[in-house]
Amino acid sequence: GNNDAQPGFIHRRLRTHEKREMQKEILSILGLPHRPRPHLSHGKYNSAPLFMLDLYNTISSEERSRVEGALERYQSMRTTRSPPLATNQETAFLNDADMVMSFVNLVEYDRELSPQRRHHKEFKFNLSQIPEGEAVTAAEFRLYKECVSRAFRNDTFLLRVYQVVKEHPDREADLFLLESRRLWAAEEGWLEFDITATSNLWVMSPAHNLGLQVSVETSSGQSISSKEAGLVGRDGALEKQPFMVAFFKVSEVHIRTAR
Amino acid sequence: SAGGKRRQQNRNRSTQPQDGSRGPGPADYNSSDQKTACRRHELYVSFRELGWQDWIIAPEGYAANYCDGECSFPLNAHMNATNHAIVQTLVHLMNPENVPKPCCAPTKLHAISVLYFDDNSNVILKKYKNMVVRACGCH
Q1: Are the beta carbons of A255 and B132 separated by less than 8 Å?
Q2: Which of A19, A127, B34, B110 would be A2's cystine partner, CB 3.0–4.6 Å?
Q3: What is the pLDDT of residues A138-196, one digit of tens each?
Q4: Neighbouring residues of A74: CB distance < 8 A, sequence distance ≥ 6
Q5: What is the 3-state secondary structure (H, E, C) of chain B?
Q6: Chain B residues with CB-CB distance to A2 below 8 A
C-alpha cells in the first residue's frame, strides 16, 4: 500500500469482520495495544498537529516528487499556508529521522513563582511514551511570539530559556540557562530553541524531567511577563500554542510475522 | 450471499450425473476448488470509513491488497515453503488462469508514513521504510 488511493482500488463499505481485521492489522503495524482516544478541542488541530501535518506533507510530496515532480507545486502551496511551518533545518532533521513526535505542554495554568521569578513561565512535557531503543537526534521547543502593544514597540527583549535542574520545597529551583536571545518587540512568528541535549537527558532519566522556564526582560533590564512580551500561552490561539517536537532514529528493522 | 448460492449450485452439481464425455475444462479443473480458489482482491481502506479520523491525521486511507480462498498454503511436515512454491509454480505453468503466481520470497513493501495522535494528544509521525512481508501467499 502507499499513501494515495490507487485509481481502480475499490471503495466499498467494509463488512464488520473485515473492519475488525483491518483495525487489528493497523494497530499491530503501528505497535499500539489499543485505539488511542486523544482529547481534541472542538475537533480542531492546534499548533503541534498542524506542524506535524506539514512535516508529513513534506515527506509525502518528496516521495511523490521522486515519481511525479510534485515538490515545486507543494513548495508554492506552503507559502500560502498559515504557521507553523517547518524550517529547512527541520526538514533536514526529518530526512534523517524514522519517527517524529510532538509533545503537548502539560502546564495548564501559570503558577505564582517566587517574587524574584514572578514573570518566569513554566513548560512541561511528558516524554515517557517513547518506544524502547529510540534515540533523540534533534529536539526543539517552539514558542509563538506576536507583535506587542504600543508600550514596548521600539524596544528589544532579552528572552531566556532555562532547563529546571532541581526543585526545592523552600527555595528557588536550580536553573540551567539553555539559550538567551535578543528579539525586536515588534517581531512576530515562531521561535525555535534547540533542546536536544535536554531531551536526551529527559528520555534517559525521566526523574530529571522538571520542565523548562522562560523569562523576558526589556532592554533596560525590567522583567516583564511573557504575555506582555507577546508570547502565546495556553490561553492563546490554538494554532499558536507552544509545543515541543523531537526527531528520533530507530536502529533495528522490525520483521513482522504474517497473520 | 453470492458465495452461498454458488456453494448450493455446486452441491446440486455434485448430485448431477457426471458427463463423462466432457474432459475437465479450465472452469471445471478446480471445480471442487471454485468456492475456495485463491484470489487476490484490491480494496481502498478509508480511516474515515473506520471512524478513525479523530486519531489518524494522515493519510486519509490506504490502498490494500488481500487474498481469500485457499491462499494460506497448507505446509505440512514433508512440504516446506520452498518446494511448495515449486509445486505452485508447476500448477501455475499448467493452468495459469486458475492459480495466482505463488510467492515465498520476502516482499519489500512501499515506504509509508502515518501521522496519528496518542492517548495524551501528542502527535507521532512514523515512517515505515523497511516493511518486509515474509510469507507464502498469493501476493
Answers
A1: yes
A2: B110
A3: 999 999 999 887 777 788 999 999 999 998 888 888 999 999 999 998 889 999 999 99
A4: A57, A58, A61, A65
A5: CHHHHHHHHHHHHHHCCCCCCCCCCHHHHCHHHHCCCCEEEEEEEECCCCCCCCCEEECCEEEEEEEECCCCCCCCCCCCHHHHHHHHHHHHHHCCCCCCCCECCCEECCCEEEEEECCCCCEEEEEECCCEEECCECC
A6: 62-63, 110, 112
Is A22 close to B112, i.e. CB distance below 8 A? no
Q: Name the residue of chain A whose CA is nearest to B128's CA.
A: A98
Phi and psi of B128, rounded to 5°? -115, 100
> pLDDT per residue over A181-206, tens digit each?
999 988 899 999 999 999 999 988 88
Nearest-Cα distance to chain A for B108, in Å, is: 11
Contact B64 A30 (CB under 8 A): no
Helix (H, G, I), strand (E, B) or coil at A231: strand
Considering only the beta carbons, identify the residue of B43, B125, B128 that sits closest to A52: B125
Is A101 in contact with B43 (Cβ distance < 8 A)? no
Q: How far apart are CA B15 and CA A92, in angstroms?
A: 69
Q: B31-63, pLDDT tens digit by residue?
A: 444 556 667 778 888 888 888 888 999 998 888
Q: Is the ipTM of this complex over 0.85?
A: no
